[in-house]
Amino acid sequence: xxxxxxxxxxxxxxFPVSLEESIEVENEVRAIDIFVNSLDLEKMGFxxxxxxxxxPAYHPAVLLKLFIxxxxxxxxxxxxxxxxxxRNIEMMWLIEQLSPDHNTIxxxxxxxxxxxxxxxxxxxxxxxxxxxxxxxxxxxxxxxxRAQNSKKNNFNxxxxxxxxxxxxxxxxxxxxxxxxxxxxxxxxxxxxxxxIHSSRKEGYKKLQQQLEETGxxxxxxxxxxxxxxxxxGNITEVAYxxxxxxxxxxxxxxxxxxxxxxxxKAMGAMIRRAKSxxxxxxxxALFDKGYHTGSELxxxxxxxxxxxxxxxxxGSNAPDPLYNVKNFAYEPGEDHYVCPQGHFQR
Length: 346
Prior knowledge:
44% of the residues lie in helices and 16% in strands.
């Protein structure tokens, strides 16, 4: 049986192939290169001027190209991108064989969120210039992303008060243990526990003070910008909610916003931004039942935008499922509801 045979690794080439010749004309990295080079990065907010002295910095264009390439190829980790710089021929061509380390890549992403968002806006404008944005039908939805912050490291006033009350009870118990103790060993053990709980109490007091000073309803200690929210039903998590809007013509995202709130109060702002991006209000917006809120529908109506939102199912909390709200029939002429057994009350 014959097989396709590879080339000898030790074979010398008379005419070495350059990086330029290794990348096809239609390769996406060429589009990334042209796009980033066309941007005014300083105007967008990227730092392009650095003081002399010390190790030279990487130009933001290099790191932005790296960031976009990673996004398009599902490589989000800074450490993975660092490795690809040394082994991926496309990336070698794109950033001219530079090799920024993972800290440099991570800091670029962390330090330039607003500027990166402006780059996204530029991609939307580019899509509009090529008539890829229909501007007639859009759809919005939210994506819950779990934060790097456990529930136990998220606090509100009630939770802090509950912890403080527990600590006060334990402190009182340990003080009583000291008073009743016969030996020094028992007193030392009780005093050790008192010191531990007193230190914890001080930490909760600082969190309480921080809540009072900021006016925020809750605080997360590991991931400060995250918030505890309802994901669905009774399931909660410390997370972010990314509100995204997509144009129906070619399913291209035209807007996004990272929030700490649920969907109920998000639709108005999404529609307002969509109107600004599209440039008119002659489009239809679609949303699921999580966005069905009267105040948000009023905003859409005020903007003159046709908005279709799924209606949530009627409540289903009756002791007998037969008597759930959906099983009652409304009689417009008589202006009353008829129960499943055919009875009504005027």
